Amino acid sequence: MQMYKNTPIISACPTAEDKAMVEHCLYEVWDAAQNGSVVEWLELANAEIRRLWAEGKVPVVVGGTGMYIDNLINGVTPIPDTSAEAKRKVQQMLAEQGVNALHNLLAELDPLTAQRLSPNDTTRVRRALEVFYDTGKLLSEWHQIPMIKKLPEARFEVIRIIPHKDELDERCFIRFDKMMRQGALAEVEALAKRNLSPKLPAMRALGVPEL
């Protein structure tokens, strides 16, 4: 969520003071109207990491859920980016039929993929159909192809920070109060005025739908 420009308070983006202390890359890159993907992020991250290496620096890659970092470390299935035509087709189907109907269609075409995806996971259900319509190959078939690493020569030192649930809960309450004092409500009001699709990642950021 920190990749999106329009919710720096909600997503706790680094402040001007943070950026003055140490260089930060790939924060607030995409507009809220964009539906960014891990594939696009990997291309950007690859370029930034190689730039930092060339400058003799050691990049620190910080993640949230871990999916993006997992793909950076272990590689991705070589699925091509889908065409604008395929995206429009599936988006129209989504608007007319809803995500449950699309999940049912996916279950007929690719039961293996449908089984592992929630019927409410709009982003991944849509992506699976886009891939099929664009390439003629099921997502489950693509996933049988060996992974490709963007940085095969990289050596990663992985650090996992897992606070206790009680501590995490307390920090969440403190952060919410801090966000509200900093202007989170005004941030979301400005976003709401744009009338963007509620299905977009930026519109589903934790705190945005609630506020």
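(the above was protein one; protein two follows)
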Amino acid sequence: MPPRRSEVTEDRPLRADAQRNRRRVLEAAETVFSRSGNGATIEDVAKHAGVGVGTVCRHFPTKQALLDEVLNEGYRELIVAIDAALEAEEPAAAFDWYVHQFAAHQARRRALAEQMASELTMTVDAELQRDLRTKTATLLERAQTAGAIRTDISPADTSMLFAGIAQITAIVGGDQAVRDRYVAVLLDGLRPAAANALPGK
């Protein structure tokens, strides 16, 4: 079926009203997925946005397409946070700050936490994933050079540890005290002072 005139095409940008509807749907999806996780439905999103299911589906033909864009938005926010950390003068404090920001971000975006907790390769924009991985590795290297993080930790290790933060956040949700407790345990485990040799290294 050919697209209607009001729908998006490769050659023509969205009209202003369609852009507003798309933004409205996306904001509703972020709220609904954060509250209910990946179990939320298109109908839930439409109801929260105050639009019909057809309006949602014109912009996001499947629930996965909508979830993917919510996840992309989450990655963009994480990249803004890690850019701020990389601009900080103190690498040790910047690394700790970013880890706490990462955990808080997961709490706000439960769908992203659930996705990160369940799979390391996700259906989000590959360039965003590469950008975040590269910047995380740089942040880690700066903290290691400053003597704040043990040198036998690799970027792959941090990916797994961050997946662990996502798992904790997916379980405890908005309970900041519990979340901060386990983030503190993770950060203490990365300190050189109390480090024992890691197996398999």
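Reviewer note on protein two: Confidence is low (pLDDT under 50) at residues 1-11.
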